[in-house]
Amino acid sequence: MEIYCDNAATTALDPEVIEAILPFFAASFGNPSSTHWAGRKVKDAIEDSRKLVAKVLNASAEEIYFTSGATEAINLAISGAIAKYDISHVVTSKIEHKAVLQTILQHEKSGDIETSFVQLDERGNVDLYHLENLLRANPQTLICLMHGNNEIGNLTDIHAISKLAQRYDSIFFTDTTQTIGKQWIDLTQTPIDFLVGSAHKFHGPKGAGFIYINKKHRIHAQIFGGGQEKGQRGGTENVTGIVGLAKALEVAYRDLDSNHSVVSKLKQYMVSKLAISGVYGICYNGESHSLENSLVNILNVSFPCLAAGSLVKSLDNLGIAVSGGSACSSQGSSHVISALPCQKDKENVRFSFSKFNTFDEIDHIVQAVVNIYNADPASRGQSRFRLELTH
């Protein structure tokens, strides 16, 4: 039995998305920069997609630019803003995605900027008081703080940060890669300068993403070419990817409330089953066990180290796909876990769910975990799970 529970890494294509993009592999093959009928046909599809993305965010179509994914969009936001506005100070956190941290690091190495890291509490939440102190001391700062953490699921109060950015004449970029399609974001209510999304995180195709650039900005391009995307991103557009992104986003927001309900129940169910599993020493990283303070699709669990091997690898051998980092071996924990004050001496496993997961799959995963610990020499006597799992 194969179970996919790594949806924070990527998601399966939605059947409606497959249906939407198929024509663009065959009949609708024109170059959108061409002025003849074949080009106009796909150009119209791109512009319709742009309008759809703008609509779900309550933005205007002229503020949406398509990219190859979130990583490119992140680089464009950070590097483009630094170059355009001669930014000398950036505020971020130590648990941002590496695409954010590495981009900032490169500018720091080049001497372009100085970086301040906002303090986090023991669960990885941003200290808004410390953030305000940093901004008070360094107005006109570029703030780079993510909306939803990709490893521990923590949700950041981007509305409060937006207000601070306005108060201290700063630019606010938020990485919304994990929250687009899962959280309502209304840009008329929460003014943000830049945010990004990637189609494959919400059941769209890989290789397609977007950046929202508030219309008051015109930042420096990072990829030059034929002037596509209004000069912000050169290169022939990935038409199938863009159409798939828009369709996936449409489906995600159409079904957002029902998907949220389904996935939150899966998360609650797994927490409840782990609680009675008998596996000794289980705890949760960040806010991932909370339905209010974290993304409902992410559950990051700290397990005791196995005597031999990795729990993630053992689950993989049983056909269960999850991800994580282990302080039990030389590979070490992730930079996110390492930034938190506890649970560094355990194996940290991220289970991330989607609308395609089931309660039966959760039963199978928990039973597999129990069986692995029952078979582990260091864990015998600590895990005695013999209950029938039902939902």
From TrEMBL:
Molecular function GO terms recorded: cysteine desulfurase activity; iron-sulfur cluster binding; metal ion binding
A Pfam match: Aminotran_5
Presence of keyword Methyltransferase: no
Cofactor(s) listed in the protein's UniProt record: pyridoxal 5'-phosphate
Sorted UniProt keywords: Iron, Iron-sulfur, Metal-binding, Pyridoxal phosphate, Transferase
UniProt keyword annotation of Signal present: no
Family: Belongs to the class-V pyridoxal-phosphate-dependent aminotransferase family. NifS/IscS subfamily.
Entry protein name: cysteine desulfurase
Organism: Dyadobacter chenhuakuii
